[in-house]
Design a protein that fits this description.
Dipeptide-binding Protein, domain 1, Dipeptide-binding Protein, domain 3, 3 domains, eight-stranded mixed β-sheet, five-stranded mixed β-sheet, 23 strands, globular, disordered N terminus
Length: about 550
């Protein structure tokens, strides 16, 4: 499924794989459902492990930039991931340092030779918070439930990821063995099985209609859902007797915190004020201009690149002049100074992209040599292509001006308009006239279907794996939403999806990234960053492998 992804300050959505971002929501629920879709230095100036031995007790209050809409982890809403992860566990977890799958509810897992069958051995003694023991039949029921209800959760990550591998079904040969079957090699399945969208729900929850599950989620996680008041708050309490945290957890027993309260605070300035006055101890979706004042107020800043495509300009007019000429596309890539963009509009927490995907993605390849800004080289490419500078600075060829249309959306970021203006100015220096057209989410879908624009400002689509990110945006398979025209790229995208040898697959992914940039199909602009302010009394906090809120099992208050 390939559609334009929009990244908002309040929300980030991914068409292809999963919602992303930290404490962010879409400007409209319709946009979030329609446009299914952040990345800096991976730094922290906080002493999250300081403060002595962990202490039990206390309430952690977290500011959310919007309402999660539901607590059902399968739902297509931007913030559900943040509030459901502490409640539900998955078969596997991801090591934040390596992005490798590690055991969680499954004590071990293995694939057959061609990665079409995966066997999980469940841990003993795991129970749901209502006391029901975890069995292989319940795991099977969860996956059966995803397929049975796929029409009711249109756009769900869980559905799309299963279908991507040609999911055939799950068997439960005994109480502790789960076997899953796919129609084609699916080497990345363990990576996706760790996601919250595949969190295992209790039979009590599965028995409910999907529409009734929004505030009745029962899982095996370290916290229990106590209440959800829409547009106000979500309250979780510690689950007693938890003893099966993932291998990456600091400890595997009960959570340290007694309670977690997520407060919905939609205005950035109000969130910042709530931090400073102590009403909340954790908050994301910070304006770049607020980071320094929050740090001066005594908060730690945790910043981590999001594993996605870099935010950038995707070519949507490669089937017509002037972008059917690779030289023109290549000139656009060389004209952009991404460091100037970061240093002018953002802060050092944000990264400067060196490839199509961010450096936090599995399979990322450093293509910085192709992304060095060089306006002289860009101008030379346009000269050679026959585009002659005009009296007003805009190049022309055969009486036609070198004018490009750019579609973009107001995503709620304070830097959206300045970003468009800065890129416009950088293009002007090489004689390219950029005409930005602001559109709503619905308008952008229609415009892209009609091939109205030459370029589109894409959000951070994709996921933890480079292959998924690239295939989701650059495949020519129907509906080819971005009007991709590069036939030579397609065999690389197809081959990486089924290659089980890691080294061979990494080479294919690197070749694909190199081709995308060298052919000027995509111009990276920003590696967006998940930035979280953490209070002085909060310890043990770190973002997970997906740059999202963790299960909070290790967090404690001094």
């Amino acid at each position: 499924m390939r559609r334009p992804a929009i990244m908002t300050r309040r929300t980030r959505t991914v068409f292809q794989i999963k919602t992303v971002g930290i404490f962010k929501v879409a400007p409209a629920a319709a946009a979030a459902a329609l446009l299914l879709a952040a990345c800096g230095g991976g730094s922290s100036d906080g002493g999250s492990k300081a403060g002595g031995p962990p202490k039990a007790g206390g309430t952690l209050t977290v500011a959310l930039a919007g309402d999660p809409v539901t607590i059902d982890p399968r739902a297509v809403t931007p913030l559900v991931r943040e509030v459901s992860r502490p409640i539900v566990d998955s078969l596997l977890a991801l090591d934040p340092a390596t992005k490798k799958p590690v055991p969680w509810l499954a004590e071990s897992f293995k694939a057959n030779a061609d990665a079409t069958e995966f066997t999980f051995k469940l841990r003993s003694g795991v129970t749901f918070s209502d006391g029901t023991p975890l069995t292989a039949k319940i795991v099977k029921a969860n996956f059966d439930d995803i397929i049975a209800n796929k029409a009711k959760v249109a756009g769900s990550t869980s559905v799309s990821l299963l279908e991507q591998g040609g999911y055939k079904g799950t068997d439960a040969p005994d109480d502790h063995t789960v076997v899953q079957h796919f129609a084609k090699p699916y080497p990345t399945w363990p990576l996706w099985a760790a996601g919250v969208g595949f969190g295992i729900l209790a039979p009590k929850t599965l028995a409910l209609p999907v529409a009734d599950r929004f505030d009745k989620i029962v899982g095996t996680g370290p916290f229990v859902l106590r209440s959800y008041t829409r547009n106000s708050q979500v309250v979780l309490t510690k689950r007693k007797g938890y003893a099966w945290g993932p291998r990456t957890a600091e400890h595997t027993g009960d959570a340290h915190l007694d309670k977690v309260v997520y407060k919905v605070i939609t205005e950035p300035s109000v969130r910042t004020g709530a931090l400073k006055t102590g009403q909340v101890q954790l908050a994301g979706a910070l304006n770049p201009s607020d980071i320094a004042p929050v740090r001066r107020a005594g908060f730690s800043i945790v910043a981590q690149r999001n594993p996605r495509l870099a935010e950038g300009l995707v070519v949507t007019g490669a089937d017509r002049a002037p972008l059917d000429d690779a030289a023109v596309r290549q000139a656009l890539v060389k004209a952009v100074d991404t460091r100037q963009i970061r240093d002018t509009l953002l802060t050092p927490e944000w990264g400067v992209p060196d490839s199509v995907v961010t450096g936090a993605v599995v399979g990322h390849a450093d293509e910085s040599a192709l992304l060095k800004p060089d306006q002289k080289a860009a101008s030379a490419l346009l000269d050679k292509a026959g585009w002659v500078p005009g009296g007003d600075g805009v190049r022309a060829k055969g009486g036609k001006r070198l004018t490009l249309s750019l579609g973009w959306l107001d995503r709620g970021n304070p830097w959206d308009q300045p970003l468009v203006e800065l890129v416009t100015a950088q293009y002007k220096k090489i004689g390219v006239e950029l005409k930005p057209q602001l559109a709503t989410a619905a308008q952008s879908v229609e415009a892209l279907k009609a091939h109205k624009w030459d370029l589109f400002l894409s959000g951070v689509a994709g996921g933890l794996d480079a292959g998924v990110s690239l295939l989701g945006t650059f495949s020519t398979a129907p509906p080819n939403f971005y009007n991709v025209q590069d036939a030579a790229l397609q065999p690389l995208l197809a081959k990486q999806a089924t290659t089980t040898d890691e080294a061979a697959r990494a080479k294919i992914l690197a070749d694909a990234q190199q081709r995308i940039i060298s052919q000027g199909l995509y111009t990276p602009l920003v590696e967006d960053t998940a930035v979280v302010a953490v209070g002085k009394k909060v310890h043990g906090f770190a973002l997970d492998a997906d740059s999202r809120l963790p299960s909070l099992q290790d967090v404690w208050l001094s």
